[in-house]
From TrEMBL:
Domain MaoC-like: 9-107
Family to which the UniProt record says this protein belongs: Belongs to the enoyl-CoA hydratase/isomerase family.
Database matches in InterPro entries: HotDog_dom_sf, MaoC-like_dom
Phylogenetic lineage: Bacteria, Bacillati, Actinomycetota, Actinomycetes, Pseudonocardiales
The protein's name: Acyl dehydratase
SUPFAM superfamilies named among the record's database cross-references: Thioesterase/thiol ester dehydrase-isomerase (SSF54637)
Length: 142
């Protein structure tokens, strides 16, 4: 518990935001810059679905591809704190905030991870997935 990871930064272009939104979340403030300028965010913003996907992708690429991951049965929380705007650079990080052995299967551990996307140090998105991970053979719980 307490392990921290710096993840790759995120910069989404206007075209990337519009392309994703056209396919998955075609609200005017995601697909139409003119309508978005008059909308609730005062400009084009990325879909929350896109930002969660991008953040989780960074976690998987940086950590989970080298771990004994067994999938994720749940996400405890997703918080959209500020909109993600085109061409801005956002930093991404992860921290293990909880760990325990599975109650159902002693060969599995359960991690709770805090994934965070930030703008100049201010969080704009947090995601808390629950991750199943294989335990090391012969390890016993302390």
């Amino acid at each position: 518990m307490g392990s921290r990871f710096a993840l790759d930064d995120l910069v989404l272009s206007e075209a990337q935001i519009i392309d994703f939104a056209r396919r998955f979340d075609a609200q005017p403030f995601h697909v139409d810059p003119a309508a978005a300028a008059a909308g609730p965010f005062g400009g084009l913003v990325a879909s929350g679905l896109q930002t969660v996907s991008e953040l989780v992708s960074r976690w998987v690429s940086a950590v989970m591809v080298r771990a004994a991951g067994l999938g994720s049965p749940a996400i405890e929380a997703i918080r959209f704190l500020q909109p993600v705007r085109p061409s801005r650079r956002y930093t991404a990080r992860a921290e293990v905030i909880g760990s325990r052995r599975s109650r159902r299967d002693p060969t599995q551990g359960v991690l709770t991870v805090l994934l965070e996307l930030a703008d100049s140090g201010t969080p704009v998105l947090t995601v808390e997935p629950i991750i199943l991970i294989a335990t090391r053979p012969g390890r016993t719980e302390k």
